[in-house]
Amino acid sequence: MQMTRRGLLRAGAAVTAAVVAGRADTAAAAAAETAGFATVNKQKLYYVTLGHGMPVIFMHGGLGFDHEYFRPFVDALADTAQIVYYDHLGHGKSDRPSNFADLTLERLSSDCDALATTLGFDKFVLVGHSYGGFIALDFAFRFPNRLAGLVLSCTAPDLTSKLRDPLGGAPDQAEALKRLFAGPAANATDQALRANWTAAVPLYYNKATPPAGVLTDVDSRTIYSAAGFNRGNELLASYDFVSKLPTLKAPTAVHYGAGDIWRFGDNEKLAKNIPGATLKYFASSGHWPFQEEQAEYVYYMRAFVASLQR
Length: 310
Known about the structure:
Blueprint: H1 5-9, H2 27-31, E1 34-40, E2 43-50, E3 54-59, E4 81-86, H3 105-118, E5 124-129, H4 131-142, E6 147-153, H5 171-180, H6 190-200, H7 214-221, H8 226-235, E7 252-257, H9 270-273, E8 278-282, H10 289-292, H11 294-307
Helix pairs in contact: 3-4, 5-6
């Protein structure tokens, strides 16, 4: 029996892992890297920028994780764009609010808008991966004039997507996945979230087989936020943007991993409903095309950014 995303979580979902390959390819870009904190909406958000050209802001998913799983894999794009990674409020190195009820999709979108202004951007490309795609869609409806382009990566406009069937992997990984979405009591601390996530995350890769070294590397760099993870799930109880998709006007690229644990592409709704949107499946990827097919992903992103400059 296939379980729907909403049925498993009654809320949010997914994200995170990182890469250890490709560091030599990004050494030059890293030399131009800057990092710091920007005060937006009275809270400090941690951000990293590298490269030059059209601004491309990456929204991480989770919730409960941070931007580190994008790196160093996406860094190679810095030869043609100014990449911005940042940690959502309550995540990574950004401030943790005294009350996580302050986190709403509206607030997270507003934070991105304010951060872009602080960094001096007028228009930019927004990339939303997994839960970051949920926020990116909210942003696109609230701040359409900020977008030069929109990239929706391994995400969906509602929670009807099913799990991969057969799930694959090992029984203990499937049990960890159940714990991950069993509710706040099962993920009450950062340590508990980390334990459940690191046990379940191999399932998020194509054929439940992560690239060698990736999981240890990303775990060593990730700052977990159980409060962010649990609040993120609460926010999605009524998540559904399907009816609003035809109103989007920004040039949009949609992509999925053909082997994703979440079968977003099986009932594909984004590209079918967003006017002019393009659609791509990464044949050998699960939830992380930028890790599992790095060269193909960077080529794809370079082409999309270039298309916006013609």
